[in-house]
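User: Reviewer 2 asked us to show a designed sequence for the structure in our supplementary figure. I'm pasting the structure tokens here. Could you produce the per-position amino acids so we can include them in the response letter?
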């Protein structure tokens, strides 16, 4: 029996988000709008503090869109039921890339408030910035960002259209075509996303350099993407709305992937530390010194505990990865831990103990009200757009044979 015939014999129901998601959508929209109003006030009150807070919020929320297209490309390349079942949740994240690009356009207004290489006087007096000037200059910076988003949207929207065509026609060749298209796209995506994080975050530091840095941030994005996918999938499948198609086996696979990327993130993070710390080079070591002084060292310990130790131990349990309620707690934990991780990575560049930081606005650990305004403003709008994208289509592919047959397992 062909896959096409098998799909016709066991149709997948056209199930969409329920009314509870509508309430979350409205609340997130209101919170986002209020947050953006506070962002406008923050811009006029202290634009330097605002744009530093905005960069932190942008990196966190854009991570879901970037991680979404990365996991989508990876899933189509390697195959697996987990990818087909979670495809709609990943495609909805990928479809938020246009709003993320609009978020970035706002960031362009604050380049001089974030990046020291935009100041000719600082470049003239810093040998590190002077050496990077051919790469770090405003026209080339903007051109690279436009190129990154163009590449991501090209691959993401092409896969999106293939998925829609599969729903409409059930063409059995589309499965292989999506795999063949995703494989080179995955390589290009990893390269462009890595350089994007060099540009967005690492270039805000006047002298630090690390080849592991971009990959470390990207793997964290993948990890938070899996966490949000598990959270939304479990909430959407309560009461066995999908007839056993979102089941314990699928959650177990997603839990295993979250476990694997937790280890991968830890490996990259530890590798960067192991390479930098023993070398004891002042221009590189200062990045860590700024993050282990004062309260920052307690935050570093918190990140190590919450991003690795606790989820590692929790996800060792096979039973926990098959229990939706216990797995969803681990996913929420990682989403919060990732938030602290991004704050610890981004903010000490501006609020550190180093007198050499040219754009620092204070010394030591500080939290501004603009941090909350930017986080809830961008976050509320992103969640609103994400849920609207998720509402546009059925929550499961309708004619991909890997979704069927259903299993007699009901998620609580």
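Assistant: Here is a per-position design you can include in the supplement:
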């Amino acid at each position: 029996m062909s896959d096409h015939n098998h799909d016709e014999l066991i149709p997948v129901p056209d199930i969409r988000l329920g009314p509870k998601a509508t309430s979350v959508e409205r609340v997130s929209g209101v919170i986002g709008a209020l947050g953006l109003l506070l962002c406008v006030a923050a811009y006029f009150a202290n634009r330097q503090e605002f744009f530093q807070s905005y960069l932190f919020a942008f990196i966190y929320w854009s991570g879901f869109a970037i991680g979404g297209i990365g996991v989508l490309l990876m899933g189509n390349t390697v195959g697996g039921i987990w990818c087909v079942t979670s495809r709609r949740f990943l495609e909805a994240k990928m479809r938020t890339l246009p709003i993320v690009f609009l978020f970035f356009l706002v960031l362009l207004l604050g380049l001089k408030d974030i990046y020291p290489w935009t100041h000719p006087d600082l470049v003239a007096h810093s040998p590190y910035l002077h050496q990077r000037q051919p790469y770090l200059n405003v026209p080339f910076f903007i051109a690279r960002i436009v190129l990154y988003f163009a590449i991501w949207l090209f691959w993401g929207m092409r896969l999106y259209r293939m998925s829609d065509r599969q729903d409409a026609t059930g063409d059995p060749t589309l499965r292989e075509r999506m795999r063949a298209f995703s494989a080179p796209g995955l390589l290009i995506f990893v390269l462009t996303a890595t350089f994007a994080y060099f540009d967005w975050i690492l270039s805000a530091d006047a002298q630090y350099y690390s080849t592991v840095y971009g990959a470390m941030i990207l793997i964290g994005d993948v990890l938070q993407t899996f966490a949000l996918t598990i959270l939304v999938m479990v909430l959407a499948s309560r009461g066995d709305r999908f007839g056993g198609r979102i089941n314990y086996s699928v959650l177990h696979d997603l839990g295993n992937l979250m476990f694997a990327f937790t280890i991968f993130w830890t490996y990259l993070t530890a590798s960067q530390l192991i390479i930098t710390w023993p070398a004891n080079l002042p221009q590189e070591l200062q990045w860590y010194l700024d993050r282990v002084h004062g309260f920052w060292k307690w935050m570093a310990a918190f990140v190590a505990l919450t991003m690795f130790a606790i989820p590692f131990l929790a996800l060792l349990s096979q039973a926990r990865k098959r229990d939706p309620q216990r797995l969803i707690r681990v996913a929420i934990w990682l989403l919060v831990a990732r938030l602290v991780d991004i704050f610890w990575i981004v903010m000490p560049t501006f609020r550190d103990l180093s007198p050499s930081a040219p754009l620092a606005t204070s010394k030591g650990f500080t939290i501004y009200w603009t941090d909350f305004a930017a986080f809830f403003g961008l976050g509320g709008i992103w969640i609103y757009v994400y849920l609207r994208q998720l509402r546009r289509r059925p929550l499961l592919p309708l004619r991909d044979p890997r979704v069927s047959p259903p299993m007699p397992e009901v998620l609580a």
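For the response letter, you might also mention the following. Residues 18-397 form one domain. The first helix runs from residue 3 to 9.
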